[in-house]
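Please fill in the sequence for the structure shown.

STRUCTURE ENCODING:
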C-alpha cells in the first residue's frame, strides 16, 4: 500500500482488519505529509494496532489519530503506549470504544509520564475501573501537556474519583475532564467538588444524581423541596455540602470516625448536623437523592452552535437519493448514521456518516400496503441488539419490523405515530386517533421513555408535554400547558422529544420553528436552537419534527419543510 506524498488527511472507514492495518502501518512509517488519520469504526485488533504503533515511533508528521470503535484491547493499548513514549508530534488520540481495561490504561498512563506533546486523549466507552484510573491520576500529578481527558462511559467509582481529585489539586494543565456516565456516587462527587476549590482552571463534567450544595449556609434551602437543606461536609470550606432532607431521626445517625472524619457505613457521608449532635454524623446518601431534593438549578447547561450543518437532504424536495420529502422522525445510531422517516416518499432512508446521499433500507416501492411498501411512515427506531429497524407505518395502521430484508408486522390496526424503546427492550407506541399511549388519554404524537420507565409524550393538540411515572394513574405537565403561543412559557404543536440524563426535556416546538429545553418544575423553557422565524438559513428551522443526539452530544433536527436534517454542534 502506498500513501500519496501530498495527502494530509485520510479517512478509512472500510471495515479494515489486522492484515490491511499492517500494510497501512508500513506505508505510514515513511510518509512525510499525512497529519490526520481517521480509522474509526473498523475491525482492527491488537495485531493491527501494534503495526500502526510501530509506524508512529518513526512518523514525524501525524498530529491526529482517530482509532475509535475498533477492538485493540489491552494489548493494543500497550503497543500505542510504547509508541507514545517515542512519538513527538501526535497531539490528539481518540481510542474510545476499544475494549481497553485497567491493564491497557496503565500502559497508556506510563507513556504519558514521558510524552510531552499529546494534548487530547479520549478513552470513553471502555472498561476502565478504579485501578486503571489510579494510574492515570498518578500520571496527571506530573504531566504538563494533556489538556483534555475524556473518561465517560467507563466503570470508575468513588475510589477512582478520589484519586483523580487528589491529582487535580496539583495539575494546572488539564482544562477539561469528562467523567459522566460512570459509577461515581455522592462521596466521589464531593471529592471532585473539593478539588475544584483548589483548581480553577478545569471544566469538570460528571453525572450528578444527588444534590450537592455550594455557597449555601448550613441548613439553608438548596432544593425546590422546602424540606431539604444544606449539610456542610466535614473538612471542606463552610459553604460546601450535601443537599438533603432536613429532618432525619437523630438517633439513627452514627458519629463519624473522629480521626479521619469518614464513615464506615456504606452509602453515608460525614456531615455537620449540630441540631442532632455537636460531633460530625454519618448522613444517609439516600436522603439526598434528586427524587427527594430536586435541584434548584441545573448543574450542567450545554449549548449548541446556532448555525447548523446540513447532514442529509437540503437539495429541495424529491425522491432522489440526495433528497428528502418532509422528514419526520429520526434516529442516530452509535456510528452517527441517521435513519430518517421520509414521509412523502414512503420510505426509510439510512444516511451514513458524512455521506452525500442516503440509501433506502425500507419501503421506497411506492405508496402501498404490501410488505415491501410503506404508507406515510412517521417514526423509526433501531433495535441496536439485533439491528432491526422498527417503523411506525402510520398510513397502513401498523408497526412493522425490517430485519435483513425480511418484514413482519409487530402491531396491526393501530394509528401509530411515535415509537420509543426503553433500556429493557420494551416497545412503546402512541396511538394518535385513540388518544392513548397504551391506556393514557391524551392526543399523543411523539414519545420518550427514560431509565426509570417514565413516559414523556408530546401532546400536540394541547400544546404541552406530559410525563407519566411508572405505574402512575395520571400524568403531569412538564412543559407548556399555557395555551398555544410563542412565549417561553408556551409551545405550539410540539412534536419530537428527548430527555437527557439530568432530566432536561428537549422538544421540537414546530409552530414556533425552534427547539426548546425545559426542566421539570420550571414555568418557562429556553430556546436551544432556532427561534428566528421559519426560513431556510442555517440558523432557522421550518416546522421541525424529529430530533436526536449522537454520542458526542451534537443535536440533529428533522427540518420538516426545508426537506433536510440539520446538525447543531455542541459547544465544548
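FILLED IN BY: designer on duty
SEQUENCE:
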Amino acid at each position: 500500500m502506498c500513501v500519496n506524498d501530498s495527502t494530509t488527511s485520510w479517512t478509512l472507514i472500510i471495515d479494515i482488519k489486522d492484515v490491511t492495518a499492517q500494510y497501512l502501518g508500513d506505508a505510514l512509517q515513511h510518509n512525510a505529509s499525512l497529519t490526520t488519520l481517521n480509522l474509526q469504526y473498523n475491525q482492527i485488533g491488537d495485531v493491527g494496532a501494534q503495526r500502526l504503533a510501530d509506524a508512529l515511533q518513526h512518523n514525524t508528521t501525524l498530529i491526529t489519530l482517530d482509532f475509535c470503535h475498533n477492538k485493540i484491547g489491552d494489548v493494543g493499548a500497550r503497543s500505542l503506549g510504547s509508541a507514545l513514549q517515542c512519538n513527538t508530534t501526535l497531539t490528539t488520540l481518540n481510542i474510545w470504544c476499544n475494549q481497553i481495561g485497567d491493564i491497557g490504561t496503565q500502559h497508556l498512563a506510563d507513556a504519558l509520564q514521558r510524552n510531552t506533546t499529546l494534548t487530547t486523549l479520549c478513552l470513553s466507552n471502555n472498561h476502565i475501573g478504579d485501578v486503571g484510573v489510579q494510574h492515570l491520576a498518578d500520571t496527571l500529578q506530573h504531566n504538563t501537556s494533556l489538556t483534555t481527558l475524556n473518561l465517560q462511559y467507563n466503570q470508575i467509582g468513588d475510589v477512582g474519583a478520589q484519586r483523580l481529585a487528589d491529582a487535580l489539586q496539583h495539575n494546572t494543565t488539564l482544562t477539561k475532564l469528562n467523567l459522566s456516565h460512570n459509577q461515581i456516587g455522592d462521596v466521589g462527587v464531593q471529592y471532585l467538588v473539593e478539588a475544584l476549590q483548589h483548581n480553577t482552571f478545569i471544566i469538570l463534567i460528571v453525572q450528578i444524581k444527588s444534590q450537592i450544595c455550594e455557597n449555601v449556609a448550613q441548613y439553608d434551602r438548596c432544593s425546590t423541596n422546602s424540606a431539604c437543606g444544606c449539610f456542610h461536609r466535614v473538612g471542606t470550606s463552610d459553604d460546601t455540602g450535601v443537599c438533603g432532607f432536613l429532618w432525619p431521626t437523630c438517633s439513627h445517625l452514627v458519629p463519624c470516625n473522629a480521626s479521619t472524619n469518614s464513615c464506615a457505613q456504606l452509602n453515608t457521608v460525614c456531615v455537620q448536623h449540630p441540631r442532632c449532635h455537636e460531633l460530625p454524623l454519618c448522613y444517609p446518601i439516600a436522603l439526598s437523592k434528586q427524587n427527594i431534593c430536586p435541584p434548584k438549578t441545573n448543574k450542567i447547561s450545554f449549548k449548541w452552535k446556532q448555525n447548523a450543518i446540513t447532514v442529509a437532504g437540503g437539495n429541495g424536495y424529491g425522491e432522489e437519493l440526495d433528497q428528502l420529502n418532509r422528514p419526520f422522525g429520526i434516529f442516530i445510531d452509535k456510528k452517527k448514521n441517521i435513519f430518517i422517516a421520509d414521509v412523502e416518499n414512503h420510505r426509510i432512508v439510512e444516511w451514513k456518516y458524512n455521506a452525500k446521499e442516503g440509501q433506502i433500507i425500507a419501503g421506497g416501492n411506492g405508496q402501498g400496503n404490501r410488505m415491501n411498501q410503506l404508507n406515510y411512515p412517521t417514526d423509526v427506531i433501531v433495535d441496536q441488539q439485533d439491528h432491526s429497524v422498527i417503523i411506525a407505518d402510520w398510513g397502513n395502521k401498523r408497526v412493522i419490523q425490517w430485519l435483513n430484508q425480511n418484514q413482519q408486522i409487530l402491531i396491526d390496526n393501530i394509528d401509530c405515530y411515535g415509537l420509543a424503546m426503553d433500556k429493557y427492550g420494551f416497545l412503546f407506541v402512541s396511538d394518535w386517533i385513540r388518544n392513548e399511549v397504551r391506556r393514557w388519554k391524551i392526543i399523543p404524537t411523539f414519545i420518550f421513555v427514560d431509565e426509570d420507565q417514565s413516559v414523556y409524550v408530546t401532546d400536540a393538540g394541547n400544546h404541552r408535554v406530559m410525563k407519566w411515572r411508572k405505574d402512575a394513574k395520571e400524568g403531569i405537565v412538564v412543559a407548556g400547558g399555557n395555551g398555544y403561543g410563542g412565549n417561553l412559557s408556551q409551545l405550539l404543536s410540539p412534536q419530537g422529544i428527548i430527555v437527557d440524563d439530568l432530566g432536561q426535556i428537549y422538544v421540537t416546538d414546530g409552530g414556533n420553528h425552534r427547539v426548546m429545553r425545559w426542566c421539570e418544575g420550571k414555568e418557562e423553557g429556553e430556546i436551544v436552537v432556532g427561534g428566528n422565524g421559519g426560513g431556510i438559513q442555517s440558523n432557522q428551522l421550518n416546522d421541525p419534527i424529529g430530533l436526536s443526539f449522537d454520542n458526542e452530544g451534537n443535536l440533529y433536527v428533522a427540518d420538516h419543510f426545508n426537506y433536510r436534517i440539520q446538525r447543531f454542534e455542541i459547544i465544548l
